[in-house]
Amino acid sequence: MTLNDVVLTPILPEAILLLTAILILLIDTFLGDKRWLTWIGLAGVVLAGVSAYRLALSEPVSFQGMAVSDHYTAFFRMVILTATALGLLVALNWLDAHGEQQGEYNALLLLAAIGMMLMAAATHLLTVFVALELLSLSLYILAGFERERATSAEAALKYLLLGAFSSAIFLYGMALMYAATGALDFAGIQQGATMSPLFLVAVGLLIVGFGFKVAAVPFHMWTPDVYQGAPTPITAFMSVGAKAAGFAAFVRLFVGVLGVEKVTWVPVLAALAVLTMTVGNLAALRQVSLKRMLAYSSIAHAGYVLVGLSAANSTGVAAVLFYLFAYAFMNIGAFAVVIALERQGEGDVTLSQVRGLAHTHPLLAGAMAIFMFSLTGIPPFAGFFGKLYLFQAAVQANLTWLALVGVLNSALSAYYYLNVTVQMYMAKEETPPRLHWRPVLGLVAAIGVLFVIAIGIFPQVWLGLAKLGMLALLG
Amino acid sequence: MILKVVFLLVSLFTVGSALMVVTHKNLFSSALFLVASFFGVAALYVLLEAEFLAVAQVLIYVGAIATLIIFAIMLTRGMMSGRTSPRNDQAAWAGLASVVLGLVLLYVVVFRVQWPVVEKPVPPDTIEQLGRALVGRYVVPFEVASVLLLAALVGAVLIAREKEV
Fold this sequence. Notes:
- The complex is a heterodimer of chains A (475) and B (165).
- Chain A has 475 residues and is mainly alpha-helical.
- Chain A is built from 19 helices and two strands.
- In chain A, a hairpin with a 3-residue loop joins strand 1 and strand 2.
- In chain A, helix 2 runs antiparallel to helix 3.
- The two termini of chain A are 30 Å apart.
- Chain B is an all-alpha fold and 165 residues long.
- Helix content of chain B is 76%, strand content 0%.
- Chain B has seven helices and no strands.
- In chain B, helix 1 packs antiparallel against helix 2.
- Chain B is globular.
């Protein structure tokens, strides 16, 4: 086999994004109005989406056992491309206002998206690893994008150092997995997977590596500082995209490939789920910074998704996919509102800044309220059905206690989510919040609201798609 | 028998230098010990009859990466004079936990594992096979690695560039 025999089809969406990223870097030099770069990036995302859709209609194709384009991949491409499109949009005026480099931002965002989609498609640990590194490296740089602000640099450095540690641990897990099963490709690992001390150590190290990437407790220490310090558009993008990508590979490897040996890892993941939900929610209760609160909330949400992963059954996998899709809209939507509230040069928004927002900007406050309701899991919004399916899966897997812990945690989280709403509607503030209001932010918030409601009203449609993805994995 | 002794000596040298890298107070000396450790790994490759990997190890890690690290240390020395300590009051507990967990891991990996052994001679044309594998079977990770380098390059330029006002 030589390069000439290689057919690009299975990774065409990724190839399109790569060409778009290179194009953006090249024409950045000539272009006067840099805002065009965002639209070029969006065009690339749309093209990639079209090709991903066409791929989803055809039979699954594998790229030499390294990556596969099946319905599971297709579902995550949809989630990640959505997050990428919204991530490009929320930054449009933000970059202008902060005088940051548009070309590099857009190109790096697309490169990170390539890594994320490849993680979902990967069927070989080598692909998983290089894809993981591609997305992490791009995000390290993006986290430190505001070079003038010390907290942004701190976020980048912390993310880089802890990310490098976790990558090393993941790599060690890969090496031991190879030693234990004699293979690095998923099919071979599945064949060779038998209980042995070495296998256990390998599984443990891989859990630590994935746990870091999806911000599960106790591997979450980087998350609050990084999410708070990074530029808000990046926080929005990575809280959704990196999490989806991490879980995509996590679920494919653990439920899809190591499912036969699930007695070894289900108790560990269930314990992680409990810790992650509880610590995330308890810490979020005490935050005054909106960004930091959303950071802890994203940890808690990783915990809910871990509940579905611990269930390790077909309902659980479908629920995980459904949840990550719904989460993309509610979280990026909430961050779009935070960006609108941001004051020049501060890069942080406190809870007191939303006081009385409903009186001055009723639409914006309404959107934020819907996102908060959805994050809490109040019907009829998307978040409710997401949690419902996750907890249902846990009950089916005889993990009723885990579902109970999840429900209790949701009740706990209601306090800080609804507190935001209360502050917006009940509190009177003499000086109403001044906004850097931009039409694109309104567009992103509107898209978020639309989907949060649409997913909530027609959950069966989206669950059907998630089930298609699940079937590709579990047959 | 001789091979075993050589292997032991080389491993001791490699691990010893690696230990010095993390324990030495002077960053510059740490970098030099890192070079020694890289050489040790290259020697291990030679023992495994992977000559090409050994040469690549010396060329890339010793030749390029170690030099780069030393340059970086020399250029930023002014900023690095230790005003802050990397340790806090939890260092003792953290150290204890890591040592215990590390020993457990080592015990399992060293004593509880039957390492699989494949009794096959090393093929004579390893370089050709490596090359074919890189542009054949492993073309996806190989190409993604170059995309990764592109991202790193863009990032490096971005961080190092003067900000235009």
